[in-house]
Amino acid sequence: MANANLLEMRGICKSYADVPVLDSVDFRVGRGEVHALMGENGAGKSTLVKILMGIVPRNAGEIILDGRAVTFRSPREAMDGGLAMIHQELNPVLDLEVAENIFLGREVRSLSLGPLSTVNRRRMRQDCQALFDRFEIPISPTAMMRELSVAQMQLVEIVKAISLSSKVVIMDEPTSAITEREVAILFRQINLMRERGVSVIYISHKIEEVFQIADRITVLRDGRQVGADAVSALSRDALIKLMVGREITNFLPKETVPIGEVVLEVSGLTWGRRVLDVSFAVRAGEILGLAGLVGAGRSETVETLFGMHKASAGEIRIRGRQAAIRSPRGAIKRRIALITEDRKMTGLNLVGTVEENISIAALDRVSRFGMIRKRREHASADEYIQRMNIKTFSRAALVSSLSGGNQQKVVLAKWLLTDPDVVIFDEPTRGIDVGAKREIYLLIGELVRHGKAVVLISSELLEIMGLADRILVMAAGRLTGEVQRRDFSQERIMELAARFNEVEHG
Q1: Is 295 left (phi over 0), alpha (psi -120 to 50) or beta?
Q2: Which of 4, 274, 461, 493 stands the most exposed, by the fewest C-beta atoms within 10 Å?
Q3: Are the beta carbons of 218 and 202 closer than 8 angstroms?
């Protein structure tokens, strides 16, 4: 790895309405270096890279790229200057094909027609397929983006950014929605980029990943740089302390509580070809894990259970009584809550306030004769803002102004206000920092202590093995096995998750 810095950001400052977000931040990335940028939600990481990409202007400081001072005024200028970025919050064009999304803004055109040339979709689909073959990604270039899962959309964004052949690639939580199999593929590509002299800025809350792939780490806290060192010079505990400003012990706490009666029972649940004859039960006080690779059908299973998709077969029982759940409203009525995988698309009303988002699923609790009782709504919002430690200046703040971790806490508060008996978590810690993760782990423990039944979907095997009492594994829409806590191992779970041939042809 070369010693010369390819990128330098010196004395970067940024304020919003006189509130400082970045305070004289220095950040340097070597040529061919994988440099991790870490910190809690709200530390300033995303703002720093948005300034670099020309998305937001800086108030002070300078940027030196490849020995030349630069100021990019738009992402287009940044891309032309040799930068590419995988954004944490996905923004695909849902009504275009996958191939069209990959080549958006740099479409392949038919040369014979000169300035009147048309888009060569056939060539783009071929080039897209070649990229997918290289990355071992089983997605059709002709599929519509809206047909893909969040994890598949994440893979498309990764391929798009790496295909640009840039000097610097910024990866903001690139593995937040993908499983370890896809992470391994991504890391192979990062190592190839490193060998070619491409620099990678790697933003992640997954500490184990950072120690596996990064050369150096810079830590931001409250808009300031509080540390920068080689990975080899930092321990996991030292890094966490830099990030949060305090020591965190027992990071993944497991509550051991008595397991009670069956609360939810699912038999033969089927939705098209995505959910095939799925059966399971979850008891009061139990955390049931649901594991699998991208496209295994985990999210589709709980969404069908919740009434988001119309089941073509199957039966659902709540405490032994049959329940016909045909809509999310019906699921809520039967005291089931679903914290969805994509908080921005299906979890929040981004143009609403924190208070409105907290109360929206439990309006019957804050209204009378069809009219919202504002005093009760205020009280409920204030109670959960305090209980969930949501960092917001007011219950009237737009939820879109909050950090990702605090937005996730608002989603949790919304569902807790409904007082559910069954709580389904679909990737609950996706894209949030280490401190907020632990708060969610403690909340899950509190739920089972109070006799709630919990279903947990997570692509982080250490997370799901740390919290669950038993784990069901899915592949290609079917259950392929069950692992009891005493038998938990990453190898066993991955073996069951990879049983595609047995599932499809057995």
Answers
A1: left
A2: 4
A3: no
Round to whole Å and give the CA distance between 447 and 347. Answer: 20
On the question of pLDDT at 107 being above 60, the answer is yes
Reply yes or no on whether the pLDDT at 247 is more than 90: no
Report yes or no on 253 lying in a domain: no
**Are residues 426 and 406 part of one domain?**
no
Q: Are residues 287 and 411 in the same domain?
A: no
* b/e 266-295 (16+ beta carbons within 10 angstroms → b): beebbbeebbbebebebbbbbbbbbbbbbb
CA distances from 107 to 117, 261, 320, 466 (A): 11, 57, 56, 45
Mean pLDDT of 150-171: 86
Tokens of 230: 């080689």
Least confident of 24-33, 370-379, 430-439, 480-489: 430-439
Q: 444-457 pLDDT, tens per residue?
A: 999 999 999 999 99
In a domain, 360, yes or no: yes
Q: What strands, in cross-sheet order, belong to the sheet with 287-292?
A: 336-339, 422-426, 453-457, 287-292, 470-475, 478-484
**Same domain for 82 and 183?**
yes
Token duo for residue 232? 């080899």
Q: How far apart are CA 222 and CA 414, in angstroms?
A: 27
Q: What are phi and psi of 199, to 5 degrees?
A: -95, 145
Q: On the CB side of 233, how many CA atoms lie within 13 Å of its CA? A: 8
